[in-house]
């Protein structure tokens, strides 16, 4: 049994401190994630929003320690249910995947093995004895809205929505403390998307895990998330509570403008600059409509309170702007 860190009445089940991730390119290390600060609490739905290439999936893969071979966690800490997982062996982390944290991947058709039926997929995901599995598999597959008969079916015989429900069942079967959903509705139609979102919310309410929901649909995040994190070029630039406070970061305000114009899908926007800035100035400096000369310097993430914060020198404790 793992303990959780409590903040007031909230139980902190994921804590990321000053995380840096890089990609090895020959003799160079290219920055991918920079100074990531993030906490997720039991029972909340935290939506992480950003353009394609902003680092959302890399952050998710860092949490479950499934980064591609050329990627490295350079520094920082990832703490799951009071257990530091940065630096521990692959053997130990394998024992924690599924139990503490599980992930619903973006493309179920690519993730599900066509040679195995659904029963085998669930069995391979389960950490426990066969007797427990036989009792649990019917319960879990039914909970995600599928018939038990589907256990004998193979992935290619299912629709995209059914495949996604299978991935959700695989993520749920060990009753993890945190579930990461990496753009689980990207390839689905509008009706199926609504059904999957409703299912995830029902699971959150019933089982009370923390959920990290990754999306490029800002309107979806605004309508479903308890908190929203905005990513830009490998950094979380703001964390805020929708409907409770106005976003302050210039980049967030630009995205909110797109949202108000009904351009909620930001995956194809062009605000991301392909040029890598140095670590010595604000990452949004070149494109910021509110920049001042003082902004041309490095700025870390600043927590406004225990649950919201911003990466902008304008709102620092010693701001001179």
TrEMBL record:
The complex is composed of two ATP-binding proteins (NikD and NikE), two transmembrane proteins (NikB and NikC) and a solute-binding protein (NikA). Residues 14-258 form the ABC transporter domain. Keywords: ATP-binding, Cell membrane, Hydrolase, Ion transport, Membrane, Nucleotide-binding, Translocase, Transport. GO terms for cellular component: plasma membrane. SUPFAM superfamilies: P-loop containing nucleoside triphosphate hydrolases (SSF52540). The lineage of its organism: Bacteria, Bacteria division TA06. It is found in: Cell membrane. One of its GO terms (molecular function) is ATP hydrolysis activity. Pfam families: ABC_tran, oligo_HPY. PROSITE patterns: ABC_TRANSPORTER_1, ABC_TRANSPORTER_2. One of its GO terms (biological process) is peptide transport. It comes from candidate division TA06 bacterium ADurb.Bin131. Belongs to the ABC transporter superfamily. It catalyses: Ni(2+)(out) + ATP + H2O = Ni(2+)(in) + ADP + phosphate + H(+). This is Nickel import system ATP-binding protein NikD. Transmembrane segments: none annotated. The keyword Iron does not apply. InterPro entries: AAA+_ATPase, ABC_Ni/Peptide_Import, ABC_transporter-like_ATP-bd, ABC_transporter-like_CS, Oligopep_ABC_C, P-loop_NTPase. It is a peripheral membrane protein. Its EC number is 7.2.2.11.
């Amino acid at each position: 049994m793992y303990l959780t860190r409590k903040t007031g009445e909230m139980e902190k089940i994921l804590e990321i401190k000053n995380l840096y991730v890089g990609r090895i390119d020959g003799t160079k290390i290219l920055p991918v994630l920079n100074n990531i600060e993030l906490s997720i609490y039991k029972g909340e739905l935290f939506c992480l929003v950003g353009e394609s290439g902003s680092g959302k999936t890399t952050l998710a893969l860092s949490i479950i320690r499934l980064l591609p071979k050329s990627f490295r966690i350079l520094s920082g800490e990832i703490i799951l249910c009071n257990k530091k997982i940065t630096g521990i062996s692959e053997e130990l982390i394998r024992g924690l995947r599924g139990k503490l944290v599980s992930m619903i991947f973006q493309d179920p058709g690519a993730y599900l093995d066509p040679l195995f039926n659904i029963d085998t997929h669930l069995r391979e995901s389960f950490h426990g004895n066969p007797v427990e599995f036989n009792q649990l598999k019917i319960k879990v597959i039914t909970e995600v809205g599928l018939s038990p008969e589907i256990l004998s079916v193979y992935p290619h015989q299912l629709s995209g929505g059914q495949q996604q429900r299978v991935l959700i069942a695989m993520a749920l079967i060990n009753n993890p403390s945190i579930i990461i959903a990496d753009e689980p509705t990207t390839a689905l139609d509008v009706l199926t998307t609504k059904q999957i979102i409703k299912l995830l919310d029902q699971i959150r309410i019933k089982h009370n895990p923390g959920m990290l929901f990754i999306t490029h649909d800002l309107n979806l995040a605004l309508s479903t998330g308890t908190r929203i994190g905005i990513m830009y070029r490998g950094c979380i630039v703001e964390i805020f509570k929708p409907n409770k406070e106005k976003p302050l970061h210039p980049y967030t305000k630009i995205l909110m403008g797109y949202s108000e114009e009904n351009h909620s899908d930001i995956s194809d926007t062009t605000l991301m600059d392909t040029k890598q800035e140095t670590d010595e100035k604000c990452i949004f400096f070149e494109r910021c409509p509110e920049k001042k000369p003082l902004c041309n310097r490095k700025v870390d993430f600043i927590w406004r309170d225990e649950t919201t914060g911003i990466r902008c020198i304008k709102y620092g404790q010693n701001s001179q702007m």
